[in-house]
Every structure is written in structure tokens, then in C-alpha cells.
């Protein structure tokens, strides 16, 4: 009697009433009829659910299920991203979905969404991870790893209000690549940008641009413009909104909400309009104010070197030095970057896509040291591919084009035109599976041939093997191409080899 | 001044003291020295961490990081498992890490570990998923899906006390395959057992056996032995411990803890010792007591049919009808099964492995109906591969054999014997990456040749391309095999093609 122990108390009365019915005809008297009991239990459970009027079947707010259609698109994109990470020598890694709450606090800055905390069920205070970078830094410090190139693909959770139309959810996937270790300047940083280019080109999302800046230049700019040091991070997070908000709105936020003097805001306004190639770096070296700031000069020096390497990598034309780039997260200490798509792939009738950045990252030399009891630093630089946005773009594009994806990979279907051929079908399909061939059949004793062929057409299975009375008598199997409807008879003992041959040719 | 906004208040005093130091020589006076500020901030943060004496860097209790070594083993095993699922026509799917708490309650039974609840931060009450089966049933009911063959690989969380030596953690990976839908009896059930055989054979874990039983036979056995219906699930969960506990201890639990009459326990004891092939099914049909129970007869009828299909699949010798198999979870309603390894791969000096079951599953025809407002049922049957235990076994075996795994897939290393060849190396490695070749180099301006070659040997990179003064002058690149130490010079313009040729040959 399944689930009896779990019944809510109020369901018991109804269950007992039904159990008190006289036993049915097939009961032995001594032993109570099990069907009847089982039925009574199910009815009671149903009652129990109906007695909870507030119970709605849904996924939690801001989350969703990923259907087979979603999964196919994801798998393709993640495969491409992960191959690129592996091409650059990265190792895989994973960390738990949750961390000690203390590990995650004071790492993300003012504009970060809320963390999901776990309930205190006795024991440690825990939170779901908010990104993959802080767990990576914790891992390096905890294991005293001084050097590592790793990638990490995993879910993260942020309690933001979900704007579902833009493909933003409270649960989402991140794909990170990071290089930890003390190396000669800008070589790993340049590789990170190379990786972003390879992935964005490989995904064929259209033209893109990677904006580059340096936190030391941002801070230097703030300093020479007269921003009080206590307001650096707050103003930084305002500047970070420039890709979504007009300058005048950002200026308003800085002056009215964050109490910045208007003339200071205007000085910043002059800088953040600047963007260009390596020549802008040279120009900023000559800037009367910025050139007086030691930190800014360090940042500019590094950017100059970075552009040299990017030229050798053949990707300098994809990179723009952009003084409006600030990045929201607090932990960056050096070069920062963010990739944006230049032409959103809109077509007639399609909503224009506003997807924001599709990849971003930067240098964070202080984060690992925050976890080390002695403050030992491990410089890091890395990037995160905005795969959720990319999934969304690709799905939208497929929808527009009316493209359909197969959600299974089945190569062969085992069919019969006659009744009583289940045994033969089971033997044939086992042979196919044992030979590594992807095969399906209908779970029916006597399916109709038309139903079977329709199944192949609707799910995109290319080949059918058919066994019936005639084939059995002649010791053959018919192989049918679903596309051409051509059929050939092959000796029973050769049919697997013949199918393998056809599959390798296609 | 990174992170300033986030400083704990008590760190401010120390920060201010340092900021009040006179500006350093490189400061302009008007603009405060940024290095000095940054340094002060970091020192303060360090102080802040030191002021939290209880802060330990660790992963939460019962969880762990997965190192690159773990990941390589996992990737191989998961690839094999997922290919098998795809070979049988399954679609991929994913559900959120957490569900409404109500979705998960009253599904798992008395011996289930605790659920991880999320903190009530305003909004819905949520829990981390406990398995992948209940979310699947919720998905089917929510989307009114009546038929689906899907696989799902994902993390689940259970607040059990971790027994780490047996590879059990509070966070672990599950790999599930399920067939939902109304079909002719036992065809999907037989396929589930076929899949378990294919995976366990494919993983080469040694000989294995799959125990099979049916919940209706278990319940029928309880009924004819005289177990009160109210104790069915409680006694079922005691029986489930028979693979870890001796009969006399299980009997003691049933009699003393669960209040079963000793003679009833002894009657059960007679049954649970029975195991065998299809002949035992026939024997039980003749059993004077069991044959009087309608439910048991239904179960026996289905098992007979199942064995017929298993024989056609060629796997009947791997299957044992075992009356002691009960399965802990409450939602099973029909056939149940569990795979155990027969020979644990122990060698001299290795601890004997007690890994329990490595795969299990069964039929659960009532679960989807529990979510449907009208109680519409969708019959389901499925299996779960105990991948964590399999990971553990494979890792232990590799440790015993002293096997090492490469954690990267890098094929080519770009080296130089001379100084000032960074630019050439960057150009060469970009060409390799752009041709899809997995390549690495050291992030140093002037690395020593020996260091570079050592890196290749220690990480298992098979090929090195070398560029130096002589090669540059002659317009060639040297290709070196790390294993044989042989070197050949190839024209600069042909080196990528030559490497591709060598890689395709190996």
C-alpha cells in the first residue's frame, strides 16, 4: 500500500471510510484486496491535494525547466565553448552549489542582486553561489594553489527580479575561464581576449566588439576629476550603467542620488565619451590630468602592451579602448573587458534584441588574498561567457527562421508490418544497441506500420529496419530509407554491418 | 580604491590611520597616491578577516570541490552513460536546482534524509531537489506531457550524515533515464534493465547482478504473512536494509522497533531468502500463500513476461528475482530493481570496497497523478545510475594501479630556446588555435628551454614547436616529439599542416 505512511491526517478519515467497504469479489476474505486498498490510497491523496487550495504546480519564481529543445541548443553552444577552453589548455573543475555564507559576503558590491540563503537547519550558514569566480578564489586559497588555468561550467543563483523577455533568470548557467598565477604582464590577459574572440566568432552571432578598460584608469579618472575616494565604487557602478542608460540619466544618478558635485560629473562625462584603438591609449598618456595619476599611467602602460599582443594575435580590430567601461563587480583590480554584439540578428517581424554584453571579465589580483589567512595574493585574470544570452539569441533566431531541431539522435527504427512480431523486434533492436547503433521501436505488441513510419518522419529517424512474415521466411531484413522511401532486402546476418555502412556514409 | 565601500566598520579606523600618513614621493600632492590607498585598503581587509577568528576557509559540511583529476574521470563515465541513454532514444532535460517545498514533501518515505530548505527571504518556500524523479513527474503533470523518454544528469542534495569513505556526500550527481507513458506491459521495463546492463558492462566494473522484484509482490508477501496494512511501508524500509544488515538485525528492528509479531517476521524471513531466475517466478505462482493474493499474482505475471523479454535481449543471466529487494523510496508501484557488483575490484593492499548498489530503479505509476489536479495518471518506469559510487570505484582502482590521468588535452607546446621570442611565439600559437589545435605556451617573456620541455613532459603534451634565431633565419619551425626527442625542421608556412598530419596519425 504505497504512500500510506505519508498521508496527511485529514485524509485518513476518507481513506478509512473506503477501507470499510465490503471486500470485492476477488478478495479471499482473510487477505484484504490490494487493488481496493491502493485505489483508496490514491483517492485520498488526491483529496489531500485538493484540500490544499493554494498548491499550484509550477517552478519557483524566476526559474524554468529546460525542455529537450532548449537542451539541444545548449549542448551545441556549450560544446563549442568548452572545446575552446580546452584548446587553450584549461582544466575542468567544479565546486559545490552552496558555500559558507561568509565566503560570499562582501565580494560583489552595491548593485549585486540578493544571495539565496539556505535555511538554518542546524549547522553552518550557507548561501547558493552567486558566480563561479569567488568559489574559484576560495578553492585556490584553500588548497594553496599558486598557478592554475581552469574552466568551470555551472549554475549560479541570484535573487534579482527576473526580466524573462531578455533571457534573464534567477537560476542561470555560467561558463568561466580563468588563469591564476604570477606571470609576465598582459600575456594571460591577451589570451583571455583571444578566447572571447574565438568563441564569439565560432558561434557566428554576427559582428562583435570587445570594450577594454582598466580599473586603475577608471579610479585614476575619478581621482583627477575630483571624485572623493569614498565614492569611487558607487560612481563606478553608475558608470557601469552607461550601456543601458543615457549619459544624462547616469549623470543625474551620480549628482542627485550619490551626491557628486555637478562639475565633477561633467569632467567624468568628457572622459567616458572617449573610445578608440591603441591611438587613444597614446592620447591618454598625454592627457594633462590623467597623465598626472600614477595608477592611471600603470593602467595605460599595460593597455599599450596588451594592444601589442592583440595585434600579434590578429584581433586588435575587434578591441576598443573605452573609458566608459567600468564593470559592476567590486573585485576587479586591472584590465576589464566586455563583449557586445554589433548587429543584433533581427529580421522582419522579429522583436529587436537588447541582449547587453555576451561575454565579460577582467583582472582580479586581490580576491584570493582575501581568503588567505596571511593575505598571500594570487593574481588572476578571467572571463565569463554570457551563455544564457547566447542561448536566447540562438533560440530566437531559430524561431524566426522556423528551424527545427531534432531532440533525439536515433538512427534506426525497428518496425514490423504484421502482428505478433514483438519477439523478433526485440531481438533485432538488442543487436543494434549492442553494436552501438542508436535505435528505437514502439512499446506496443502490435503497432500499425503507418504509426511506426509516421513516428520516424516526425522525429527525424533516417533508417527503418522492417521484419515481417515474408522477411522471416526468406531470412532477410528490409532496410528502408525514410527520406527516399526506398527499401532493400539484406540477409538477416548482414543487416547490422549494412546499417553501419550506411550510417558511416551519411 | 577597490572594495572600500565594503569594509567592515571596525576596519575603518585602521584604514584612516594609514591614509593620514604623508603622501609618498611619487604623489602629486593634489591627487592622492593610489598605490598607497590600495595598499591601505588591502591591509585593512586583511585585518578585517583576522578580526573574524571563526572564519575558516572550507566547503560546506558534506560537500567537496571536484579537482581536475576528479573531473576527467567523471567526464569519461558520464559520456559513456549519456551515450547509452541517447542510444535508446532519450531526450535531454533539466529542471531548477530547487522546487517549491510542497512539490517535494510527502514523496520519499521514512528513511529519506533531510531536505535542504532555502531561507524564507520573502516569497515562496523552496527546497533543493532531493532526486530527479519527483521534478520529472512535476514537469510531466505541469506540461500535461503524456509520453516522454528522457534522461537527466544533475546534482541533487540530501542532508544525510556524510560517510565520506564510501563516496557519499550531501551534494551528488544523479543520472536518470525514465520512460513515461501508457504502453504494453513490461516492454519499457525490460529496456530499462537492458540499459543498466549496457552501462555496467561498458564501464568494465567487473561482474554484476541485477536484483528484480515487484512492489505488488512485496506488499502481497506482507499481506499473506500477516503484516498490518498500516505497517507496510515501515516494514518495507526495514527489508530494504537487508543488503547492509543481517536478517537477524532486520528481524530485531521489525519486531522491537516496529512492533511486528515475531511469527509474522519469521514468515517474511522465509520469503526474503528466496532468489533465483524465472523458475523462482514459476515456483511463487504455486506458493500456497502468495498465490492467494491478487496483487502478488499480478506482479508475478509481469515478472514472467519481463523475463521473456530479458531473454530476447540476451541479458536474463544477469537478472535475479530476489524477494528481499524492497527499495527504500515510497513512490514505486510495480517492478523494482537494483544492480550490485559481484566482485569488488580489490587488489593486494587495497581496502575492500563496500559500495552497495550501483544502479537502481523501478516503476512508479502513481507519482505524476499526485501532481495533476484531476489525478490523471501517467505510468512511468526508470532507472538511476549510481555514478558517484562508480566514480569512487574507478578512482580507487586508478589509485591502486598508480594510473595517472592527463587533466588537459593540449597537443602542442610553443617553445623557444632564446630570449626575445615572445612575439614569434604569440604569432605561432594564434595560428595553432585558429586551426583548432590545442596549444599552450608559458606566460613568460623569456622562459628557459628546459623549463618549457619539463612542462611538456609533466603535463603529457606530445609535440613541441620550437622557434629560435636559427629557425627564424632559415624560415623554418622545428617540430619535436616529446616522447622520442626527435626534431625535424618544417617550412614556416607548412608547420600547421604538418602538425595536423601528425596529430591525425597518432
From TrEMBL, chains A, B:
Species in which this protein is naturally found: Pan paniscus (Pygmy chimpanzee)
Cross-referenced InterPro entries: aa-tRNA-synth_II, aa-tRNA-synth_II/BPL/LPL, Anticodon-bd, Anticodon-bd_dom_sf, His-tRNA-ligase, HisRS-like_core, HisRS/HisZ, HisRS_anticodon
Cellular component GO terms held in the UniProt record: cytosol; mitochondrion
Superkingdom as given in the UniProt entry: Eukaryota
Pfam families: HGTP_anticodon (PF03129), tRNA-synt_His (PF13393)
E.C. no: 6.1.1.21
Gene: HARS2
Keywords: Aminoacyl-tRNA synthetase, ATP-binding, Ligase, Nucleotide-binding, Protein biosynthesis
PANTHER family: HISTIDINE--TRNA LIGASE, MITOCHONDRIAL, HISTIDYL-TRNA SYNTHETASE
PROSITE patterns: AA_TRNA_LIGASE_II
Binding positions for L-histidine per the UniProt entry: 131-133, 158, 174, 178, 327, 331-332
Name by which UniProt lists this protein: histidine--tRNA ligase
Gene Ontology process terms (BP): histidyl-tRNA aminoacylation
Signal peptide segment: none
Protein family (similarity comment): Belongs to the class-II aminoacyl-tRNA synthetase family.
Domain Aminoacyl-transfer RNA synthetases class-II family profile: from-to ranges: 62-417
Catalytic function, reaction form: tRNA(His) + L-histidine + ATP = L-histidyl-tRNA(His) + AMP + diphosphate + H(+)
Molecular-function annotations in GO: ATP binding; histidine-tRNA ligase activity; identical protein binding; RNA binding
Amino acid at each position: 500500500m504505497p504512500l500510506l505512511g505519508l498521508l496527511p491526517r485529514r485524509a485518513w478519515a476518507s481513506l478509512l471510510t473506503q477501507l470499510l467497504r465490503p471486500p470485492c469479489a476477488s478478495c479471499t476474505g482473510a487477505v484484504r484486496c490490494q487493488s481496493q486498498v491502493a485505489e483508496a490510497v490514491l483517492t485520498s491523496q488526491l483529496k489531500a491535494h485538493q484540500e490544499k487550495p493554494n498548491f499550484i504546480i509550477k517552478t519557483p519564481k524566476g526559474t524554468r525547466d529546460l525542455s529537450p529543445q532548449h537542451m539541444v541548443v545548449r549542448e551545441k553552444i556549450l560544446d563549442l565553448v568548452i572545446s575552446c577552453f580546452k584548446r587553450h589548455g584549461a582544466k575542468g573543475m567544479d565546486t559545490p552549489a552552496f558555500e559558507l555564507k561568509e565566503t560570499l559576503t562582501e565580494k560583489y558590491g552595491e548593485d549585486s542582486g540578493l544571495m539565496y540563503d539556505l535555511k538554518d537547519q542546524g549547522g553552518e550558514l550557507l548561501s547558493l553561489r552567486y558566480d563561479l569566480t569567488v568559489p574559484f578564489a576560495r578553492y585556490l586559497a584553500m588548497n594553496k594553489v599558486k598557478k592554475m588555468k581552469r574552466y568551470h561550467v555551472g549554475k549560479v543563483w541570484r535573487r534579482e527580479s527576473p526580466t524573462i523577455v531578455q533571457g534573464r533568470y534567477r537560476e542561470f548557467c555560467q561558463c568561466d575561464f580563468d588563469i591564476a598565477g604570477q606571470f609576465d604582464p598582459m600575456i594571460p590577459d591577451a589570451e583571455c581576449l583571444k578566447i572571447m574572440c574565438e568563441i564569439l566568432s565560432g558561434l557566428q552571432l554576427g559582428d562583435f566588439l570587445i570594450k577594454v578598460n582598466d580599473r586603475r584608469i577608471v579610479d585614476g579618472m575619478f581621482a583627477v576629476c575630483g571624485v572623493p575616494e569614498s565614492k569611487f565604487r558607487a560612481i563606478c557602478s553608475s558608470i557601469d550603467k552607461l550601456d543601458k542608460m543615457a549619459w544624462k540619466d547616469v549623470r543625474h544618478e551620480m549628482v542627485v542620488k550619490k551626491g557628486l558635485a555637478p562639475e565633477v560629473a561633467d569632467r567624468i562625462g568628457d572622459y567616458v565619451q572617449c573610445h578608440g584603438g591603441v591611438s587613444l591609449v597614446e592620447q591618454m598618456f598625454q592627457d594633462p590630468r590623467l597623465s598626472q595619476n600614477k595608477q592611471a599611467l600603470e593602467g595605460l602602460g599595460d593597455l599599450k602592451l596588451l594592444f601589442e599582443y592583440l595585434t600579434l594575435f590578429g584581433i586588435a580590430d575587434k578591441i576598443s579602448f573605452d573609458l566608459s567601461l567600468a564593470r559592476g563587480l567590486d573585485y576587479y583590480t586591472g584590465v576589464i573587458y566586455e563583449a557586445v554584439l554589433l548587429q543584433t540578428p533581427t529580421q522582419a517581424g522579429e522583436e529587436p534584441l537588447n541582449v547587453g554584453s555576451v561575454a565579460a571579465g577582467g583582472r582580479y589580483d586581490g580576491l584570493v588574498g582575501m581568503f588567505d589567512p596571511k593575505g598571500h595574493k594570487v593574481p588572476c585574470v578571467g572571463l565569463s561567457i554570457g551563455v544564457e544570452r547566447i542561448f536566447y539569441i540562438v533560440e530566437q533566431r531559430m524561431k524566426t527562421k522556423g528551424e527545427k531541431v531534432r531532440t533525439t539522435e536515433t538512427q534506426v527504427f525497428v518496425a514490423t508490418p504484421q502482428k505478433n512480431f514483438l519477439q523478433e523486434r526485440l531481438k533485432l533492436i538488442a543487436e543494434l544497441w549492442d553494436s552501438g547503433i542508436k535505435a528505437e521501436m514502439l512499446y506496443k505488441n502490435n503497432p500499425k506500420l503507418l504509426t511506426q513510419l509516421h513516428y520516424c518522419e516526425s522525429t527525424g529517424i533516417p533508417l527503418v529496419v522492417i521484419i515481417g512474415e515474408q522477411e522471416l521466411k526468406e531470412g532477410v531484413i528490409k532496410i528502408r530509407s525514410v527520406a527516399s522511401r526506398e527499401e532493400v532486402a539484406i540477409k538477416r546476418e548482414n543487416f547490422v554491418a549494412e546499417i553501419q555502412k550506411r550510417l558511416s556514409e551519411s
